Amino acid sequence: MSAHKVSPADFYDLLVESQVDLFAGVPDSLLQDFAAYVQDHCPAERHIITANEGNAVALAGGYHVATGRFGAVYLQNSGLGNTVNPLLSLADPDVYGLPMLLIIGWRGEPGVKDEPQHVAQGRLTLPILETLRIDYEVLDPERWQQQVAGLVERLAGQARPLALVVRKGVFHTYSSTPPATDLTLSREQALDVIIGAIDANDFIVSTTGKTSREVFEIRERRGDGHGMDFLTVGGMGHAGSIAMGMSLGTDRRVYCIDGDGAFLMHLGSVAIMAIQGRSNLRYIMINNGAHESVGGQPTVAFDLDLPALLRAAGFQQVQTARSLDGLAECVR
Fold first, then answer.
1. Domain-ending residue, one of 113, 131, 166
2. What phi, psi does 171 have (nearest 5°)?
3. What is the mean pLDDT of each run of 10 residues along the chain (332 residues)?
4. 41-64 b/e with 16+ CB inside 10 Å = b?
5. CA–CA distance, 61 with 1 (Å, rounded to integer)
6. Are residues 85 and 147 in the same domain?
7. Could you give the C-alpha distances from 143 to 58, 148, 186, in angstroms and in order?
C-alpha cells in the first residue's frame, strides 16, 4: 500500500462540494475515522446512522428523488448482503436508476491477515459488486480526488449506484470526543455477572463484536471451557434468531446476549422470538447506545423506551438492570 493516506476532512469536503451531501450507513472499523469526522461535522439531518445497510440504500435513493443530489452509503463489506434487495429491485438502472455512492470497507481483502469471518466475504467483495453490475474503484490514496470526481461525474450521467472500496489503513486517524453518559456498568462487568448467574448447562449465544470476544475471555479467565457458548462472530443482528433456533431443539435454557446496534439491525426478528419462541429462551440486551466495536458511533437506543418496545413485541416479562446486584437478580 502507498505510504500516503487520505484526510477524512478533505474526503468529506470533496464529496459535499460534488453534491454528495447525504451520509447514511452502518459504522465499520475500516471507515471509523471518516465516519467519526462525518458525525462531528455533518449537519444532523444529513447524517443518518441506519439500522441496517439496506435502510441506508433506500434513504439515499429517496434523497436523490427529492433533491437531484446524491447520498453516500457507507458500510463494511459484510453488510453488502443487506443491500442486495434495494440495490437490485429499486436502484438498478432497469428499475428506477437511483444513483448513489457506496463507500465499502474491504475487510478480509485477499492477502491481508484478518479474522476468519471476514475471509470469504473479502474474497467475494469485488465479484459481488460485479454480479450486481455496480462499477467500482478501489480507493487509491495517491489519486483519490480524481477517482471521486470521476465517479460523481458518472453518477450524474448514468443514474446508477457506483462504489468506492476502501482498504484497511487508507484514512488518516481522526478521533472524536465521545458524548458523556451516565452509564453505571461496563459491558464486560455485565457479562461476568450474567455468566456467573446462569447454570453451567445453560447455553449462551453472544452477539457480534466485543461481546463475543469478552464472553470468550471471561470463560478463559474462569476456566469454564467454551462448550456451552455460540459466539456469533458474523451475521450482525442474527444472534437472537440463532438462539431461538437452538431453543427449539433443546429443553435447556438458551440465553441470547445481544447489543443495541444488533437489536436494531433486524428488529422484526425480536417480535418472532417473543411470540413464537419457547419458554426456555432468554433475551438479554446490553444497551450502551453505541456501535462500540467499530468506533463508538451512536445508535438511537437511548432515545427509545426499550422495555415498552419489548413488551409490545410480546415478551411476557421484561426487566431493567442498572447495577451489578440488580443484574444478577434479574438473571436469576
1. 166
2. -90, 145
3. 84 97 95 95 96 97 97 97 97 97 97 91 97 97 97 94 97 83 84 94 95 96 95 94 97 96 94 95 92 83 94 94 88 88
4. ebeeeebbbbbbbbbbbbbbbebb
5. 33
6. yes
7. 30, 9, 43
CA 229, CA 202: separation in Å to the nearest integer? Answer: 9
Boundary residue ending a domain (135, 166, 197)? 166
End-to-end alpha carbon distance in the chain: 52
pTM of the model: 0.92
Q: How far apart (Å, rounded) are the C-alpha atoms in residues 331 and 282?
A: 9
Question: Could you write out the DSSP letters of every residue in 127-140?
Answer: HHHHHTT--EEE--
- Report the candidate in 289, 228, 231, 229 with the shortest Cα–Cα distance to residue 264: 289
Predicted local distance difference test score (pLDDT) of residue 289: 84
Domain at 120, CATH number: 3.40.50.970
Same domain, 200 and 127: no
Residue 67 is assigned to a structural domain of this protein = yes
Which helix (H) or strand (E) is 35 found in, with range? helix 32-41
Query: How is residue 261 written as a grid cell?
Result: 446496534
Domain that residue 46 falls in: 8-166
Q: Kindly state whether residues 155 and 217 are assigned to the same domain.
A: no
Tally of structural domains, the chain: 2
Does residue 145 lie within any of the structural domains?
Answer: yes
